From TrEMBL:
It comes from Bacillus mesophilum. It comes from the Bacteria. Residues 15-257 form the NADP-dependent oxidoreductase domain. SUPFAM superfamilies: NAD(P)-linked oxidoreductase. Keywords: NADP, Oxidoreductase. This is Aldo/keto reductase.
């Protein structure tokens, strides 16, 4: 495994495992257990995924020492305030059955996320979480949060994949020392990514799968990835990406696939704010 060093000195695996949309608790526990057996130690969940308990049970049953894991969870919009964030953190910790978090993120850039960030700064300073960051923050919101607060987020988890490469956002994050992490590294299967002719050609040249090529492309860009799979063989395959490198020509070909925008969600429009503020979790 390779690691990135976050801006506070904490090391994070460059490949983790995401559990988004695995809402059946028994299934989630089984899948996370299989991922642990495959070699994953970094897991990404959220209060909004309704599976923190399952992730925690799988970790507890694994027999792997807690310090070998890197566990991320996220604060939902309804808890985006100073007081609510403190309670939401403890609730997530209890559901996970852990004594501390490795990374705590503001899940969406809505609500009183300034108040939430102040609470998270205190949690960090008190040693309850090793690192704090954000998710889905556009350049303007990220820069504004950094300029007007004490602790710089260690990471911003955003949609990025070959069809939405976030080139400008990456430069902004580099400027402020914020690590980029990809949710949906495979574009959630959109745009027929696994049969894309360009990616298939590159995969065949390296004797790898398209998925492995895409993950390798992310890694060579310095992007942390959290692919999800329910197939144990695919889980292992997704970790087997450190024995080859894409050429400059490969990277140029993939660069040409960039549409320059998301086809999933546009955070600069009103509709995502309206929709995400309406969703309630863990009432």
């Amino acid at each position: 495994m390779e690691y990135v060093t976050l801006n506070n000195g904490v090391k994070m695996p460059i490949i983790g495992f995401g559990v988004y949309q695995i809402t059946d608790m028994a299934e989630c526990e089984r899948i996370v257990g299989e991922a642990i057996n495959a070699g994953y130690r970094s897991f990404d969940t959220s209060s909004a995924y309704f599976n923190e308990e399952a992730v925690g049970r799988a970790i507890a049953k694994s027999g792997v020492p807690r310090e070998e894991f890197f566990i991320t969870t996220k604060l939902w919009v309804q808890d985006a305030s100073y007081q609510a964030a403190k309670g939401a953190y403890q609730a997530s910790l209890d559901r996970l059955g852990l004594d501390y978090l490795d990374l705590y993120l503001i899940h969406q850039p809505f609500g009183d996320y300034y108040g939430a960030w102040h609470a998270m700064e205190e949690l960090y300073e008190d040693g309850n979480v090793r690192a704090i960051g954000v998710s889905n923050f556009d350049d303007a919101r990220l820069a504004d949060l950094i300029i007007n607060n004490k602790v710089v987020p260690v990471l911003n988890q955003v949609e990025t994949h070959p069809f939405f490469q976030q080139k400008i956002a990456i430069e902004t994050m580099k400027k402020y020392g914020v690590q980029i992490e990809s949710w949906g590294p495979f574009a959630q299967g959109g745009k027929n990514i696994f049969v894309n002719p360009t990616l298939v050609e590159i995969a065949e040249a390296h004797g790898k799968s398209v998925g492995q090529v895409v993950l390798r492309w992310h890694i060579q860009r310095g992007v942390v990835v959290i692919p999800k799979s329910t197939n144990p063989n695919r889980m292992k395959q997704n970790l087997d990406v450190f024995d080859f490198e894409l050429t400059n020509e490969d990277i140029e070909k993939i660069s040409a696939l960039d549409l320059g925008h998301s086809e999933l969600i546009d955070y600069l429009q009103a509709s995502p704010a309206e929709m995400l503020n309406s969703l309630k979790v863990h009432d």
